[in-house]
Give the backbone structure.
Amino acid sequence: MSPPLRGLALVLALNLPAAAATKIEVGNTLQALQAAIGTPSCETDADCHVVEVGAKACGGPEGYLPWSSRTGDAETIQSLAEQHKTVRQAAITTSGEISTCEILPKPAVRCQAKRCELQSRPIPTGKDIY
C-alpha cells in the first residue's frame, strides 16, 4: 500500500470508533424521545403537538413527530428532542454527511381516532401570508 493510502486508511480507522459511538448515541436519543412520546392519545386537537426531530447537514430538522400533552411531558419531550438534535449534529460533523437544503414545513397535527396524527399540510405561522 502506498504511503498516502496507508495514511488515509489510518485516518479512517481512527475515526470509525467515534463514528460508531455517535451512531449509537443518535439511536439511543431517538429511542428515548420516542419512549417519552409513547402513544400520543388524545380527546381533542388541543391535546396534540409537534416536535422537531434530528438535524439535517444543511440545517433544519430531519422530520417531525406528533405527541400528546395528555400522555407526554412537554419539558421532557423538548429536552430529549434537543439532545437528539445535538447528537445528530455531532454525527453530521464527524461523518462529513451532506444533505439536501430542502426545508421541511412544520406539519399540522390533529386528533384522529383518539391518536395524534401528523397532517400533510403545514401549520400556518403567520409568516406565510401571500
